[in-house]
Amino acid sequence: MRLLFSALSGTLFGAGLFISGMTDTAKVQGWLDIFGDWDPTLAFVMGGAIIPMFFAWRLAEGRRPVTQAYFPPKPPVELDRRLAFGSVLFGMGWGLSGLCPGPAVASLGYGGVMHWVFFAAMLVGMGLAPYVRAALFERALPAE
Amino acid sequence: MQSEWLWGLGGGLLIGLGAAMLLWGNGKIMGASGMVGGLIDGSGRSDWAERAIFLIATFAAPLVLYPLFTEVDTHISSNWLVLIAAGLLVGIGTRIANGCTSGHGVCGISRFSLRGIVATLIYIAAGGASVLVFRHMLEAI
Prior knowledge:
The structure holds 2 protein chains of 2 kinds. Chain A is an all-alpha fold. In chain A, 66% of the residues lie in helices and 0% in strands. Chain A has helices spanning 2-20, 25-32, 41-60, 81-97, 101-106, 113-137. The N and C termini of chain A lie far apart (38 Å). Chain B is an all-alpha fold. Chain B is globular. Chain B starts with a helix and ends with a helix. The interface between A and B is large, with 115 and 106 residues.
């Protein structure tokens, strides 16, 4: 049952990324190109994606998911340097390539070999992340 | 092409429905960087099959749609150095920030999570700065 939900969710996600133009790096970079020839499409993608999720969260109150006891709790409001630092790195890479993780997966099958180059580098980065995190953010913390 | 915002909106709705499906079905946040990253660093070992099936479906769905569209071009850079640098930045950044466009953006903003909203503002600003510097100032992309 959980695998079925995962498959259906991934299918909707992949189809939505493809149809919306999120897998087109020129459109993504066009949206980020505020000082150039700005392309507003991504605002519609974001807006469109947030609408069903807004209702999904609203209806979640006092109920439970089909296969789990509770909905994921809201993260404690904790704006830290990790969130800011990671988001800056991510944004830089997103602007450079026009790809973020979802579209990077969705475009692998038809986008050609350069998509695999990006994807492989992203996997290496994800593998390195725990070490970068430990080196930059966990050194000064007291042992728990 | 005036219809592009309609495709954007329609595709966006599908993305949101996918996220709602995972939330209501499995009680999970649909975050692409978390799905992939959990398989890479071992933190998602307990539900690896769910992650793998989600990602295979994300990979496969466009392959079914692809033949129905004409002139599909991802306009990806042909500079592999740029792509390797970008991939590393995206991989490290999303895992340190614990989310990307889908997790922080779609799932976080829709529940008015301050973390999601702040992360989204930061990565859009950094992305805008990146395009400004590398496209208009350095003309490298």
